[in-house]
Amino acid sequence: MNKSVINKRAGIMAMAFAVLGCALGIGRARAAADQPQTPPVYSAPALYNLGNSYARAGKPALAVLNYERARVLAPMDPDIQANLRHVRETAGLPAESGHWLKQHSRLANPDTMYWLGVIGLALAGVSLLLRRLKVGHRSALAATASVGLLLTALGLWDSVATAAILDESVVMQPSPASASPIAGAEPLFTVPQAEVVSVRDEHGEFSLIRDSSGREGWVARGNLTPIMPR
Amino acid sequence: MNPPRLGEMTMISPLMNISPVTKISPVTNISRFKRLRFKQLVAATTLAVLLAPIAFAEPQVTERIVPEKISLGEAAQLTIATSGSGAPDITPPMVAGLEFVAVGQSQRIESINGVTRSSTSITYQVIPRQAGIFTIPGMTPGSPPLVLTVNPGGGGSATPSGGSAPSPAPNAAAGSQLPGGSTRLAADGSAFVRLRLPKHQLYVGEAIPVDIQVGTRDGVVASLNGPPMLNGDAFTLEKLSSQPDRSQEIIDGKPFTVFTWHSALAAVKPGDLSLTMETPLTVRIRRALPPDGGLFGNAGLDDLFNDPAFQNFFGASTEKEITVASTPAEFKVLELPALDRPAEFSGAVGHFTVSSELSDNKAAAGDPVTLRLHVSGTGNFDRVNTRMLHDVDHWKTYAPTAKFKPDDEIGYRGEKTFEQPIIATQPGTEVLPALEFSWFDPTTGHYVQARTSPLTVAITPAAADTSLASAAAGASNSTTAITPATNSAANSATNPSANTAPDALRPDHVDSGRGSDSLRPHYFQPPYLAIPSALLVALFGAWFGVHRREQRARDLESAARRNDSLQTEPLLKLMDEASVRGDSELFFRSARTALQRNLASKWLKPPDSVSLEDVDARLGAGSVVARVFKLADEAAYSGLKLSSSDFQRWKQLIIRQISGGETVA
To answer: Distances in Å between the alpha carbon of B205 and those of B177, B266, B400, B551, B599?
Structure first.
């Protein structure tokens, strides 16, 4: 195929992707502009400060809840990690909480990782396409595609790690866990307040939880607050 | 009525409509049934067998009137209950100024341990024609008289259908002061839908209470098949009250059971609008008896047997589903004025009062305090909204939450409470600014802006945390605030037990005020999932397009090659013959022709137009093709002589060129 024709097509394709990207960006900006102007609700500093306030007020469950929420937005923040560890230890809980994926594999704010993944996907896709069209600069395109694939992989990994938090809740007060989701059922053990548990099933007003030591039992749903509001 | 207990057998006849006045024979008069058709006779015989043991029970009669005091225009309910055998036919006495209208009869048969007991109760509407105290004589020997007090001008609503009066509604919502609406019966007179509205001029978004009444003719309407529904899209209706109130009403001398739902209505657009409500129901349609009066030929009995309840009992009617609509209610809906509309106006229309309070007027810096704003009154509480405090110096503010506590079942009257967590960032006496809330008053037609009083709160220094002030002081100081905390983190990592004191908490962060309205990451929000999906689809589409294009180009190329090979084969044979004969002119002429055809298919032009200049320009003057072209001219004009090895060498070169090989000799 003629090289000039290939270059022209590659240019058109790159423009098409640029237009697609712009359209997505404009659409998002418009959607944001159409939203009523409400004060921001969730930010890592605000949640962290709220957690501090509750910790000082002697409310460990609320403190842990807000620290956990802050940690969703800023997973690498050392202050959040330290204060969360401190409050948990003070409440007699293990220093670490929740799924190991969330503690050790997340790098940044999930929304940032999402956009990095999308940009990586676009970079990798366009670079591979241009290589296929033989427009030259094969090495540069290969490097760009590798970077794009790396970013996409990071985004995907972060989404998997963040998904582990979707099922997690904080126990707001010491709650008996029973073998069946029936009021008055014989309790198997008591889940302490501020414990982070994963919810595995729901039935009526009860949730089947698993605590940090792997024990499972049905707990009244009213005693749990999900880390990520539904 | 209580459900039958285990071991009891109960049979209850449907509510029987008796028109127009009194004189109903009890169903126990078995002899009348003997001439009915076979099916009816079987039913009657069964009834007779069930009722036979009753002859051994003692008769008892009770009479009751409720309420004992009514206003003129209202009606009381007289119930005469008889039980046991030999109960006489009881009809209410004639009392001057009172009219007795029979509205229903029920019968209950119980069989306990083989002993069967029967009780029958007949209900009458007692309609006063004048005010006064009426004494209704006892209806059996020895029974006490009943007294009914009728107050003048009690304000029972006049019924438009004439001569009828609504009875008291035992379950009517207290305080329902809505004026009565116009009643239009369905074409068959079986039912009506009526709207009771406080006014007919309102503003867009303004909520007004509405009563929706569905009246069903006793014994004619078999069932209501759903709640009343709004007709049209110009209005919205709040959720209807869960259970309708039930009352009795007489229209044109016929008893109706009236179901009343309470709700709130709001218009969504301005203009002269009309509103109707409709409800689906099932009615029973009589199958008329033979024109000669059936087997009886008796007009009085025809009245009895054509009665809907009687026909229902013996299956002489069929059911039909109909929809009954209300009379259209006309509204003038006004637009909310744009003039003087407050910036904070959220769409609340009604009459409200506001007040505010703090959960505590003393707090430590860094501790959360709850600021509450109470908005109470009547109106569209779904539009009552406020941001409360924001951007207040020395305070961190969070988004408020709202809770509505209705004072009625339709959510028209009540109190909405907003709670906002706020945190002081520095010690001292702080004055929280007044909260503002604005609404539109439909009575005055103006916007109202209310301000609460400023609240004073004493903020003490945080117990073991001095970082808040430094954090608020600015980003430059935040570094110094964080530095020691980082050290403490290092300590806690190496020695967790050393970090158990309350002041081991790391300091607050400086909040830039930026944030998102959702904690849920974009990965798990469908609109955001669409972006990578669209990108993937676009990339795969482009990849597929490129692949298709290349495939097509390859196919075209191979087809051209096949064609070239077919065309160049005879020319190669000619070249062989020329080389055998030593004819260089024929050899190079054939070679040039073969090369022209080959290049023409690549360059997409006719073979004859492939010239030496083209070849020089595209392939270079030193290429094999250019040299063949030159040698062909040279051989034609100067008689070039070549050895047989030269012929073979040139032939090899030309074949390689044609098959896509070298271009330079």
So the answer is: 22, 6, 24, 64, 80
